[in-house]
Amino acid sequence: MKFGTVLTKYAAGGILAHSLVCGRDRFRKGKVLDEKDIRQLIEFGYDEVVVARLEVNDTEENLAAAKVAENIHFLAEPENFKKSIAFTGRVNIFASMTGIVVFDEENLIKANSIDNMITIATIPNYSQVTEGSIVATIKIISYGVITSNLETVASLATGTIRLKRPKYLSAHLITTKISRGTSNKSLNAIKKRTDYLGLSLSVNKDVPHHEDNLKEAIANAASDLILILTASATSDISDVAPMAVKSLGGKILRFGIPVDPGNLLFLGLLSDKPIIGLPGCAKSPATNGADWVLSRVVCGQIPSEYEFARMGIGGLLKENSLRPMPRLKSEVQI
User: Fold this and answer.
1) What is the 8-class DSSP label of residue 72?
2) Is pLDDT of 64 > 90?
3) pLDDT at 333
4) Are 287 and 196 in contact (CB under 8 A)?
5) Could you report the per-residue pLDDT of 115-166, keeping only the tens digit for each?
6) pLDDT of residue 323 exceeding 80
7) Where are the strands (E) in the chain, listed by range?
8) Which residue, 25, 80, 97, 151, has most beta carbons within 10 Å?
9) Domains of the chain from N-terminus onward
10) pLDDT for 76
11) Cβ contacts of residue 7 below 8 Å, gap of 6+?
12) Which residues, including other chains, have CB under 8 Å from residue 111's CB and lie 6 or more apart?
């Protein structure tokens, strides 16, 4: 692509690089100038203009953006996403339903390394989405890009976005009680999370905080998924809730996660039924580690040890005002 200042009388067919005003008319950047435009620009004193001209080996910005968007996901999952019409070199991609988005980060990084003028930006990997949520934008920065580079980017981007829909339909929440019962406010915060994922929620409220009582409640839970919110924070893998799961023959896949707030979460399996021990911050509607794990598990994406470890990067979340020991009040600064 050629880009630069030319005499206006020679600018026909060029793409206007900067918006210009001619009386009541406004010539917006990106406009392909014709002979009538040239006469009007000269009439208003524009002897020179900055234009771009595509060469034979270039692809125009909107065609380029549409090509990358088509390859990213529509070749594999057209029912899960929608896209906008290409405009000013941009195409936005939206989720068509509830779930989590899973990106092929390695190939997206490679795709973004081919040509500075071809960019793909996404929301964070494993983000929870609903119908209409934007998940990615493709933006062509220049008015045209080298076609061979575009083909390479489009190939690398093919199938790099997936949407995993909820695998489970129902959840059973068990709360335990030591002295005070579970507040309705806490229950509502958890219900909003399950509602957002399309889960029907049943509740067994204020089971005595003892292993045998919790074991019985877990065994009697008739749902696809079990959530446990204990009256006292689960502070060890040998604490009441993990031990109740293990005593039933279940496994604890993970205890503790590198997300704050939300460290004190555990993930277990009883037969094929996932069990999530919720951290105390799940009583608040604010985003915490439980949101990251719950949405993935509901969509059948059980995090691996590596994926849990990766949560630590970006896992320092906004402070929760309901937290009993806020960070800044619990530390000594030197």
Assistant:
1) I
2) yes
3) 53
4) no
5) 999 999 999 999 999 999 999 999 999 999 999 999 999 999 999 999 999 9
6) no
7) 2-7, 15-16, 20-22, 25-27, 48-53, 58-60, 81-83, 90-95, 99-103, 118-122, 128-129, 134-140, 144-146, 161-164, 170-177, 200-208, 225-229, 251-255, 266-270, 273-277
8) 80
9) 2-53 (3.90.105.10), 58-164 (3.90.1170.30), 170-310 (3.40.980.10)
10) 65
11) 47, 48
12) 68, 118, 120, 153, 156, 157, 160
SS3 for 78-126 is CCCEEECCCECCEEEEEECCCEEEEECHHHHHHHCCCCCCEEEEECCCC
For residue 250, the one-letter residue type is: G
CB 262 within 8 A of CB 281: yes
User: What average pLDDT does range 62-88 have in this prediction?
Assistant: 91
Q: Which of 108, 220, 131 is nearest to 172 (CA)?
A: 220
Question: What token pair was written down for 278?
Answer: 């919720």
Tokens of 274: 């996932």
- Chain centroid to CA 332: 35
Q: What is the mean pLDDT of the chain?
A: 94
Q: Which two tokens stand for residue 283?
A: 């009583």
Side-chain-side CA neighbours of residue 275 (13 Å)? 30
Q: Are 221 and 244 in contact (CB under 8 A)?
A: no
pLDDT of residue 325: 54
pLDDT digits (tens, 9 = 90+) for 257-315: 999 999 999 999 999 999 999 999 999 999 999 999 999 999 999 999 999 999 999 99
Query: Which tokens is 119 given?
Result: 């960019």
